[in-house]
Amino acid sequence: MNDIVMSIETTKIKEFIFSTNKLKVIRGASYLLDYLNQIEVHKILKNNSVKDENIIYIAAGNAKFFVKDEQTAKKISKEVKDIYRKWAPSAKIVTVFKEKEENEKIWDTLDKLAEMVAEEKNKGYQILNIDLPFMEKCELSGNQPAEIFKGDSESINILKGDMERLGILKDIESLDLENKELSSIICGTKDILDKLAPKTGKVSEETIRKIIFSTFIKEGMENKQNYNEQPISFYSEVKDILKIKTNIEDFENENSFIGFMYSDGDGLGDFLKKVSNKYKEKTEDEYIKFLKNFSKELDKNTKESMKETLKVIFKPCEKSNNKEAMGEFIIVGGDDVCAVFNADKVLEISAEFQKIFEEKMYKYTKAEIGDDIRITSSSGIIIAKSKTPMFHLFERALELQKSAKLKRYECREDENNLAKTGFIDFQVIGSEGCVNIKEFRKQINKNDNKVMERPYAINMEEKDAGNNMAVKNISTLLEQVRKLKETDFSKSKIRYIYDLKRKENLEDFEKLMEFINIISKMSSNELKIVKEWEQNFDSENKKFADLFTNIFDVLEMYDFIN
Length: 562
Description:
Elements: E1 4-11, H1 13-17, H2 23-47, E2 55-59, E3 62-67, H3 70-87, E4 92-99, H4 106-122, E5 148-149, H5 157-165, H6 168-173, H7 182-196, E6 202-203, H8 205-214, H9 219-222, H10 235-238, E7 243-244, E8 257-266, H11 268-279, H12 284-313, E9 326-333, E10 336-342, H13 346-369, E11 376-385, H14 390-410, E12 423-429, H15 437-444, E13 456-457, H16 474-486, H17 491-502, H18 508-519, H19 524-533, H20 551-557
Parallel strand pairs: 7-9, 11-12
Antiparallel strand pairs: 1-3, 1-4, 2-3, 5-6, 8-10, 8-11, 9-10, 12-13
Helix pairs in contact: 2-3, 2-8, 12-13, 17-20
């Protein structure tokens, strides 16, 4: 085993991916980062005599491995930064390396490397100021200088000349991908620019590189992951279930809403800490072998869980006729999933994915350390108008994902163990994404008059909530909305109950009396639904403020659950 350990970490990933609202460019940015991390980094390591057994893992924009000396580490650092600077300049690379001290264990070395990475990140990055009168901005990103002109509609010579001048065509030839014929790539890029950049036709070099990668088939990359004994096929199988779309408008429902999902794993740090304590009684080689297998297992379970979810939600044979069977994956790997789906299916897809992911990871973690710690997934769902900037969608979804993760922390069984299931939070945004979700919820959801029960658990028994917290599973909400719709319980009545709960000019007993007056006019079928929804509404001494505590959840999702 070599004594120098090196770490490579990609930062500013979200800014790189979501620099535009064009889904095709976003997809290309995601593919590009995967290619650099999974293929180019591995190629650089191989060229510098880093063998497969010296690689701890390469996944999700990160890599950790052993090198033979400091000179090799510096050479690898330069080569990795050069390839990223060429293909993904707005994504930043942090590289650090450290020699193992005498008697220092590998888990302690990795902890110190993590601290070194954090220090490098805290130094910040240079920002290019393009807000100058003589600078032209990229039509698609808006935060990068325009360096390439697509030319007129009849000729591609201008575009070809610019791509040649910037060295892009030469760089394409060095790619380790199939179907990279330059003439077809130039023509394909021109066609995309004609559609996406019709105003000025002037874009940045980075945007062009993203567009180029958007035309490659991603499963081709999976087959080239020769460091991985069993490449994990995802995109080729998903294409048999979903219609992969490249225009955001394709995902719109009749009211122009789309669904955006961001899911991230929970409990990985706690699990790895407990595992490292376990392996202190074993050898360092065994621990390294565990880390390598763990990164593969995590990535495999994430992708397999999503594939199984899509097979549950959409039957492959119905693909051609099902307008809802469409999606676009922006990030799928490690413990992350970021995707766009039909607004009417996104909540159901996320909940099913989290459930399957938890089951798979439980089998794995139980075999390693027993039943103490669970790796779960928390998710944030945004349903918004299709014209909402994608960066705003991601920011809002990330905010909700953090809310779901916090709820899991609050539902800890005791001071040592967190909840054994993940949570899901969601929000419908009717405007263009510029909404303060936290402030909005403070206004409508009072402690003494709740109208929301978000975030919801994925699969939690009431006795496991801890801290006397009232927690409901997302399946409860899904079933309730479906039953309301199946029995034709009108949305207007749900709206009335919500408005009645929020009336500030009425005392609680007045609201209760008004509500009783309304239900007295309901049909027997509607009255049955109300009793099933809120079984205690006719109990003595019951406050109206204590009833229908999920009314806004039901109201908001009524149009988005089939």
